[in-house]
Amino acid sequence: MYREKIDKFIDAHKTEMLEDIAELCKIDSTKDSYRAGRPYGDGCFEALGAALHIAECDGFSINNYDKSVGTVDLTDKAKQLDILAHLDIVPAGDGWTVTEPFVPVVKDGKIYGRGTADDKGPAIAALYAMRAVKELGIPVKKNVRLILGTDEECGSSDIRHYYSVEEEAPMTFSPDASFPVINIEKGSLHGQFTAEFEKSQALPRMVSFKSGTKSNVVPSKAEALFEGLDGSDTEAFAHTLEAELGIRFDVTSEGGYMKIEAFGENGHASTPWKGKNALTGLLALIEKLELAECGQVEKIRALNKLMPHGDWFGKNLGIAMEDEESGQLTLTFSMLEITETSLSGDFDSRCPICSNEENTLKPAKAAMAGYGISLNNDSMNPPHHVPGDSQFVQTLLKSYEMYTGRKGECIAIGGGTYVHHLKNGVAFGAAMPETENNMHGPDEFAVIDELLMSAKIFAQVITELCC
Per-10-residue mean pLDDT for the chain, 467 residues long? Predict the structure, then answer.
């Protein structure tokens, strides 16, 4: 009924929408340390303020929940639909080539920069969908609220706070993935493990190891310091393994020690095969070095047995499984620090509907304990499932089909979104299924036509559900 008007409005505001996205993506809103009035650091505070300012200038009623979550309301009527997006980002990472992470550029029909796809671009697309409905005077009987969080990438404590004071809307979607509709999200086991061992001075030895920035990111860099190894021989040997491991190694000197750096490629932990894990690559190299026997070396061997380079499905940890609805369990070894006397690390496992504590958590604990490593988790995050035949999901699929001409269907993902713990929440957009937008990796981008189409689809959904 309103499609032609919505099309014209969004197309006419293309330049303005891209400018608003770029303004937000200039801000490094990686979560940082708490400061009074800035619970997730300066960048998240700045991004939230900027987004709410844009919405207020567009004539919307806004609210700020303790500087952690912002809201934008279409009307003052009863709740019907929430659109749940986030303004925090993963760290910039290495390997950018098209532009710098926080210097957004438009090139070849895409807008590049950290956050353009995840999730500032989609958040602005949702805002423009609301603008279209408001400025076109489309009558709505119930409210649409855009919710803007700032801690999605690091645990979603912001949304837990928001829902401690606000009730869920009857329906919620998050434009933080891809079309058509994601109604199943795997559960998760974010494993945190530790071990201790006796310090050894026997040479050659490893002094330290460090890799990883976030548990849900495939690490692109790892480094270790050594004493008593020949630098030239080690460098030559490391280069022989680069093709096999898909990792580049640099061998240098630092403070009297030999330093090995491993360079891979960032990726999202839910699809670990799309990245190149520098952490596991460097561990694989270290095990092949002729280091003196000690407790530390034993633990390195153990980690290589439990989570070896290229094992994306938890086979060696004894937790590989899959089901027809949600697919395979995945595992990413994402963070590790080793000193002369201890280690601590994290892995990120996305678990299908058939997974539970009995067949996943307990076997993982037992496997690690067999090598003297303590897995310190006592619980798992359960999977999320909204019936695909519900009126809500069917309306989303209908709007998607209307604007794309494609068949809509429900799909399952390994990534968890903001709606994971909401009763009637799904992920919906804002990228087409085949688009590889380098989310969480270098040269992240959003396809401009897809952002425009998303805004149109979201506006259509509003007219279907709220008029």
Answer: 94 98 98 94 98 98 97 97 98 96 98 98 98 97 98 94 97 96 94 98 97 94 97 95 97 94 94 96 97 98 98 98 92 98 97 95 98 97 92 97 96 84 95 94 97 98 96
Give the CB-side neighbour count of residue 230, counting CA atoms within 13 A: 5
81 contacts 68 by C-beta, under 8 angstroms: no
Specify burial of residue 79 (Cβ count, 10 A radius: 0-12, 13-18, 19+): middle
- C-alpha span between 268 and 444 (Å, rounded): 12
- Give CA–CA dist 282/376, Å, rounded: 24
Catalytic machinery residues = 88, 152
d(CA 158, CA 246): 37
Q: Which residues contact 221 (CB under 8 A, 6 or more apart)?
A: 94, 211, 261, 262, 263, 264, 278
The residue type at 379? S
**For 249-298, how does the pLDDT look when each residue is reduced to its tens digit (9 = 90+)?**
999 999 899 999 999 999 989 899 999 999 999 999 999 999 999 999 99
Is residue 210 within 8 A of residue 398, CB to CB? The reply is no
For the chain, percent of residues with pLDDT exceeding 90:
93
Do the beta carbons of residue 392 and residue 465 sit within 8 Å?
yes
Tell whether omega for the bond before 430 is within 30 degrees of 0, i.e. cis: yes
CA 38/CA 54 separation, integer angstroms: 20
Edge-to-edge strand list for the sheet holding 205-211: 248-254, 257-263, 221-227, 205-211, 330-338, 342-351, 187-196, 374-375
Using alpha carbons only, how large is the chain's radius of gyration in Å? Answer: 24
Largest CA distance in the chain: 78
Q: Return the DSSP state at 293.
A: P
